Fold:
Amino acid sequence: MKKQITVFLVEDDKDLADIYCTKFKQAGFICQHMQTGSGATEMIQKNIPDVAILDVMLPQKNGFEILQEIRANIKTKHMPVIMLTSLGNGFDVRQGIKNGADKYLVKTEVTPTQIVEEINNLLK
Structure:
């Protein structure tokens, strides 16, 4: 039997997170969700997902900080990470890629279905 893909989503907008998690579950993924940056790195390292999706603007700790912590840990440094945020200016995109994001997606430019496609492409 094929292993189910686990997605760890860090998104402070609960309604948006519910939409994403619903779509991920429809695609056959397991969706784990946190609303704040605080504790996200610890949860990821405790139960390493197949892919992490991080918002940038989060309470307590931003997505760039979480990304740096993921990349600094031997257990998670190769795990695919998608930045999914409202911040689409060139500086933020470069910051995300420079810090090791595999993909940088702007929320207003992608649908949940397209995010599922991006996850599948990253895990090929």
The longest strand covers residues 6-10. The chain has one domain: 6-122. The two ends are 17 Å apart (CA to CA). DSSP finds five helices and five strands in the chain.
